[in-house]
Amino acid sequence: MENLDVTVLRHLLQWRQEGRRALLATVIRTWGSSPRPVGSIMALCETGAVAGSVSGGCIEDDLIYRYSRAHTAAGAPSAEGVTHDIPDGPPERVRYGVTADEAHRFGLPCGGTLELLLEFNPDATALQALLTALTDGRLILRHTEIATGRVHLEAIERPQPLSDDGTTLRNSFGPEYRLLLIGAGQLSEYLASMALFCGFAVTVCDPREEYRGGWSVAGVQVATGMPDDVVRDFHVDRRTGVIALTHDPKLDDLALLEALDSDAFYIGAIGSRRNNQARRARLIEHFGQTEERLARLRGPIGLYIASKTPPEIAVSIMAEVLAVKNGAPLPEEMAVAIAKDRMLPSGADGPVCGTSPRTPTPR
Q1: Which of 47, 217, 257, 299 is deepest in the core (most CB within 10 A)?
Q2: What CA–CA distance (Å, rounded) separates 54 from 36?
Q3: Contacts of 131 (CB under 8 A, 6+ apart)
């Protein structure tokens, strides 16, 4: 499953290339609670087809009613001022949830209000240029002139928050987030499935045929080289996470060292507290690492939810990855090591993790 924004833009481009009228809606401002964050986008075709979302569904229904022919085709009467067609012209601002009745009608949380910018019939050439840049792995700031609808694309180094100065809307679009998983065991299969569902592009690396040969998750790229070589050739950037899941130092340690030389937003390794302490000691003693340099290395990975099975542990890990990606603060008691230190007697490590990647550490 690809990045949601990319999916929305692909649908929008296809509709425009087919000569269909369509609009792009962007959440540009929210007050109170909001079901979707600022910068979220959706596309609507004149047929009533929708890609993406800006709310829990009711606002989408209203936009479909106002700007598509789906209702008139079914014989529904037109309300006054509703054309059931997507017009030409400059972008328009619309606001939902200003009153309590509207908030209830449109399914917004109590007190929630959001403002959208609607761009009518976006230019297909500009959409194609944006998608090409994203496919090439570039981060793009899209400038939309509100008075005219003209679009300008600017390559940027870091994501920027959406801005609207009344004249120009600027919204960042980035390539897919990626996860590189070291090891093709059972835990990797669950974690890869969840990552795909969350919109990550996933690659699993395992030089061991006995594990790689049984890989069964569709949509995942499989790399057969040594993990450190794969990480080095992966062009790891700030939208990439690297997670070591083999329990084999020959595979995990060198891959982690390469990841620590990158801008990866998440670097972690499976293992018990004892195993993670041993890994850190190895990296310091044999590879010249320091505690400061290893501060980016997460382990034991995941959030503490008392999980014991591979799918539950995958949920724990994916939750931490998403929290780090989204910049969410994590209370220290959610960390596996801290939670277990508080719950278990001094020196105990809980159930001991086996050497097989198919028997991960309970967390």
Answers
A1: 299
A2: 6
A3: 6, 9, 10, 13
Residues 281-288: contacts with CB within 8 Å, 24+ apart?
282/249, 282/253, 283/253, 283/256, 283/257, 287/253, 287/257
For 81-98, give the DSSP string: T--SSPPPSS-EEEEE-S
Position 78 confidence tier, pLDDT thresholds 50, 70, 90 = very low
Q: For the segment 164-209, what is each residue's pLDDT rounded down to a tens digit?
A: 999 999 999 987 789 999 999 999 999 999 999 888 989 999 999 9
Distance CA(156)–CA(213), nearest Å, equals 40
pLDDT for position 331: 83
Query: Cα–Cα distance between 359 and 352 in angstroms, integer?
Result: 10
With a CB cutoff of 8 Å and minimum separation 6, the contacts of 211 are: 183, 184, 185, 357
Question: Which of 208, 262, 267 has the alpha carbon at shortest distance from 237?
Answer: 262
CA 271 from chain centre, in angstroms, equals 25
Residue 15: half-sphere exposure toward Cβ, Cα within 13 Å: 24
CA dihedral sign, ordered 168, 155, 39, 219:
positive
Q: Which residues contact 221 (CB under 8 A, 6 or more apart)?
A: 201, 202, 203, 204
Tokens of 124: 């297909």
Strands lying side by side in the sheet with 297-298: 221-223, 201-205, 178-182, 240-244, 266-269, 297-298
The answer to whether residues 171 and 152 touch, using CB atoms and an 8 Å cutoff, is no
Q: Which domains does the chain have, with CATH numbers?
A: 4-173 (no CATH), 178-343 (3.40.50.720)
**Backbone region of residue 234 per phi and psi (left: phi > 0; alpha: psi in -120 to 50; beta: other values):** alpha
Which residues, in sequence order, are bridge partners of residue 26? 41, 117
How distant, in Å, are the alpha carbons of 6, 241, 264, 316 from that of 234? 21, 11, 11, 25
Contact 23, 46 (CB under 8 A): no
Alpha helices, H only, the chain: 4-17, 58-67, 70-73, 100-105, 124-135, 186-197, 209-212, 227-233, 249-260, 273-287, 310-325, 336-343
**In whole angstroms, how far apart are CA 316 and each of 134, 201, 220, 279, 334?**
30, 19, 20, 21, 10
Residue 166, judged by CB atoms within 10 A of its CB (0-12, 13-18, 19+), counts as exposed
Spatial distance between the Cα atoms of 102 and 292, rounded to a whole number of angstroms: 52
